[in-house]
Write a structure and sequence with these properties.
heterodimer, A: mainly beta, six-stranded mixed beta sheet, B: mainly beta
């Protein structure tokens, strides 16, 4: 089947607008991660979902960021009142179980103008 | 808290020379360590994990708990090894998020 799919691939938005990024994980994968990668920098952890456990939100940079996951399927990352520093590639990954290999999507490149 | 440090942002090595990408970690329990690689215009993907104790594409990595290190090594670099390499750590139950280092860009000089 298909790998992890993210949409849109690219998003340009005006400062102050809200954006929603979507991640379709591999079917059956219980774990799902969101990361942010700013230009020239490493992967910054945002949030981790594992099955029905409470998500680990410790990486969300501010209350403008939120994420949801419906069961063990689609996840959306929402950024409210976008700022220019939110410009980055947002990566989603899923994993079949705890401590297993993470499979990454192609990312969504967000540009805030 | 879990932390991964990759001290080298850039590393250039001649083809045929040995490669060592450094990774140090901080974690109070028994971690799972991984190396991920991103080739040009491709997705980030797993290269190897310490629990498998295998060699992938000629690369190996040994977990040294005393030095809290998980350096990636290859005896003879090849041009196709040029890529971005990330060391990552996952903790025990309750601390399972996958934490990445800042990455090392490896360039193999022909």
């Amino acid at each position: 089947g298909a790998g992890v799919s993210q949409s849109p691939s690219n998003k340009v938005t005006e400062k102050g607008k809200d954006v929603e990024l979507r991640c379709d994980p591999i079917s059956g994968h219980t774990a799902l991660y969101w990361y942010r990668q700013r230009l020239g920098q490493g992967l910054e952890f945002l949030i981790y979902f594992q099955g029905n456990s409470a998500p680990d939100k410790s990486g969300l940079p501010s209350d403008r960021f939120s994420a949801e996951r419906t069961g063990e399927s689609v996840s959306t990352l929402t950024i409210q009142r976008t700022q220019q520093e939110d410009s980055a590639v947002y990566l989603c990954a899923s994993s079949p179980r705890r401590l297993a290999e993470a499979f990454f999507g192609q990312g969504t490149r967000l540009t805030v103008v | 808290a879990q932390r991964v440090t990759q001290p080298e942002k850039l590393l250039s090595v001649f083809k045929g020379a040995p490669v060592e990408l450094k990774c140090n970690y901080s974690y109070s329990g028994s971690p799972e360590l991984f190396w991920y690689v991103q080739y040009s215009r491709q997705r980030l993907q797993l290269l190897l994990r310490h629990i498998s104790r295998e060699s992938i594409k000629g690369f190996t990595a040994d977990l040294n708990k005393g030095e809290t290190s998980f350096h990636l090594k290859k005896p003879f670099a090849q041009e196709e090894d040029s890529a971005m390499y990330y060391c990552a750590l996952s903790g025990n139950f309750g601390n399972e998020k996958l934490t990445f280092g800042t990455g090392t860009r490896l360039t193999i000089i022909p």
